[in-house]
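Show me a record, fold above all:
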Amino acid sequence: MRIAFYAPLKSPNHPVASGDRQMARMLVKALEHGGHSVELASELRFYLREPEPKSFDALKIEAREEAARLTKLWDRHGKPDLWFSYHPYYKAPDLIGPELTSAFTVPYVTAEASYSRRRNAGLWADTQAFVARAVEQAALNICFTQRDRQGLADAIPDAALGMLSPFIDTSAFREKPARGCPTRLVTVAMMRPGDKVESYRMLAQALGPIRHLPWTMSVVGDGPARDEVKAQFAGLPANRIEWLGAIEPAALPDVLYRGGIYVWPGYGEAYGVAYLEAQAAGLPVVAQDIAGVPEVVRDGQTGFLTPPGDVAAFASAIERLLARNDERTIMAEKARRFILEERSLGAAAARLAELLSRIPVS
């Protein structure tokens, strides 16, 4: 099929790296892997940081202008077979695709759409109404987590829903890694206020009680909260922690291969692409049983998921993997096999093909 792809929150071409941009790129790759022709319908970013009516009105005008541009383009060169909207939610609804596809009788599909009733207040109620109408119109809504699926099902009972497990391009991890240092911890995360800082804070608190063990840690990430994050670790020996800053994606596998355990609490994670990459490199994970993390880590098999907010349990899980190298090795092998066999680009392409085959295309 000829597929028009749109990500209102962040275009696959956006200059700032993030898990959202990475998954948008992975979806395009998976669709192309399945033989489809994918064109980026628009790079208009429809993102409301705060519920400001003036900003919302300005973005709606931009969306109408973009829809008018695409209308002329489709009239001149023909319409696509399908519109694929990635990650519409209350701060970034798709205000182009639903109306345009309805006018041209083009099937509309969403992936990772989300709906939360607790956001139904003020302007967010208006933006969520756009999401709800889009989900209701969609020929298919592809969910990455059971949490998102349940949210959509509760709000829009008649929505057409399907599941696609989060995945990565595993090509960079195909070579069997050399055995890394079993006591080196690794974490990869942006440094920004909110959930990321909370996760860094919990990680620092968990490392304090196990400072008697011979661990070291590599931290990949940067951002506006860099100083706040580093301050959380000030009570730990400075020579234990390697601050690598932001690195190129191509350099990440080598950092992961050098490590032994991936540690990240995961507050607010939709699922966490970094968990998938770490396991692909053969690192068992220590995270919280929170948000979408259980969708990408198998508790007791490829890592440990500890109760939310329980710092002592998080520290104990790290300590266990540091102390039991045989168990860590077994988990490392299971983690790598899990990702390479079940969460690869090829597996996702096959699943997408199955899902999209259910949609009648004129």
